[in-house]
Amino acid sequence: MSSETVKVPETPGFVQVLLSIVPTNIVGAFAEPNLLGIIFTARVFGIALLKLRESEKKHDVAEDSTEVAEQQVY
Questions:
Q1: Quick one: the chain helix, strand, coil %, rounded to 5?
Q2: Confidence class of residue 59 from pLDDT cuts 50, 70 and 90?
C-alpha cells in the first residue's frame, strides 16, 4: 500500500457562497452557465423595474393634481 495523502479542498463559508451568486459581470453571467447569477441579475432588474414603475405612478399623481389645481384656478 502506498501512503499518499489526498488534499480535500476547503468548504467555502456561507458568506462566500452568497457572494459567489452575485456575478462580477452581467454579460458574463449570461455567457457562462451560471444559473444562480442569471436568476440574481433577473431579480435585481425586476425589482428595479417595479421601483421605477412605482416612482412613475407617484410622479403622474403629482402631475395630475397640479393640472387639476391649475384648472380650478383658471
A1: 70, 0, 30
A2: low
Using the CB atoms, write b or e for 1-40: b if 16+ within 10 Å: eeeeeeeeeeeeeeeeeeeeeebeeeeebeeeebeebeeb
For the stretch 1-49, pLDDT in tens is 567 888 888 888 888 888 888 888 888 888 888 898 889 889 988 888 8
Kindly list the domain boundaries of the chain, sorted by start residue: 14-73
The predicted pLDDT at position 68 comes to 64
Contacts of 28 (CB under 8 A, 6+ apart): 34, 37
The span from the first CA to the last CA of the chain, in angstroms, equals 99
- Decide if 21 contacts 37 (C-beta within 8 A): yes
